[in-house]
Design brief:
Peroxisomal Thiolase, Chain A, domain 1, seven-stranded mixed β-sheet, six-stranded mixed β-sheet, 35% helix
Amino acid sequence: MADRKLGKQTVYFENGPFVAGGAAVVGRKEGEGPLSEWFDFRLKDDRYGEKTWEKAESKMLKEAMMLAMKKTGREKSDIDLVLSGDLLNQIMSSSFMARDLQLPFLGLYGACSTMTESLLLGAMLTKGGFAHNIVVGASSHFCTAERQFRMPVEHGNQRPPSAQWTATAAGAMVLSEKRSSIRVDCGTIGKVIDAGVKDANQMGSAMAPAAVDTILHHFADTGRSFADYDLVLTGDLGFVGKAIAADLLIDAGMDAGLVKSRYDDCGAMLYDRERQDVHSGGSGCGCSAAVFSGYILKRLQQGDLNRVLLLSTGAMLSTISPFQGESIPGIAHGVVLEVC
């Protein structure tokens, strides 16, 4: 419906849908980081009692979904649809989670942008009257991502300083037509932006231009600026990508003081850079999913934040494309959550 469109890339939602609640599950390293207290469950063993890392990731995602339902007073019978994705081939963590939950399921792949992609699509489906309650989420695991995209951890290969640490984490939120204290205000659908970066150890550099493009289009579509948000938060750029994004935003005319005070990145927040060896910070679907569903959601519920623009950023490469000489395209989707 064209009357729900703002500008070129943004859709808005009047009077809901609402975020009933959420939950975040994280691994040992993430549970030892500066945001530890904001997560619902911290693993003592990153295998989570399973025989493989992949099974552990799927179990984490299922636990986040179940916790989100429990915290919001929803039973499985109340849920109309699950939207979720991850980094693995055939999104196996999400698919196996859905096999266990036995709920209607739409699997998504947006690489590390999947959390806001699921939030945005879930909000559109709920507001469109196609569902009463939807659970959205995403997950990642350091060991599964290393095995698929780089080298198995057993190899002990050297990681350059620009490399990021794929978060062992999962996050989930329950979207509902029933009124609650937090609503989805609007969302901006990103475009695939290719900065020509070919180094798979430079993910932040590859994704930063896409994040900036979506932020600038969001502001153009809505007539807003950094001054209208308590926080603008990208998902997976890490320290290198965050610095690049900030510079690009200032070069584009954004107020430097507001960019420095109101912009941050989940990958730069999730770990203690001095105490934890994560090189350029965090990434992975679970990075933004856990920070959004844990830290951000709880701060909104407590009244510490009133309106936030959340952007998950994804690097759209495959296990093969770098070896074929392809660059790494990026994408970012934005969703605005606000207290109502």
